[in-house]
Target: Dehydratase
Amino acid sequence: MTSSVPDSGLASGAVVAGEEYRLSRADLVRYAGASGDFNPLHWSPRIAAAAGLPGVIAHGTLVLGLVTRLLAGWLGDPARITEVTFRFVRPVVVPDDGVTVTLQARVAEHRPDGRLALTVVASVAGTGCVGRGRAIVRP
Model:
């Protein structure tokens, strides 16, 4: 449901971009190799359980990468993303059969310099995994 053309005249609260991304354990392994983050919380159910987690979890930076992918797709140019701030409130657990992460970006405010402040929500099965997700973009 990604909007095709950025518009600085969008009303506050307007959804500007949204998408669902499917993550698998294989995605976590590929991301670990690309990022160099081989923390076993991202691939070992035994280690994740010992750490008190409900299962293997996605890298936070992988989820943040999905956010920038969503915004860059909407904006048409990743250089238009000037700031992204996230606070994870719960991990994205990736079971053996994978998980769907839903992302949505809404206009929070129009800034005097012409940029837009966006609220970005990431959720799994309707439960939010990010608090204070915010992006500043040049439409």
Q: What stands out?
A: The CA atoms of residues 46 and 124 lie 22 Å apart. Confidence is low (pLDDT under 50) at residues 1-5. The radius of gyration is 16 Å.
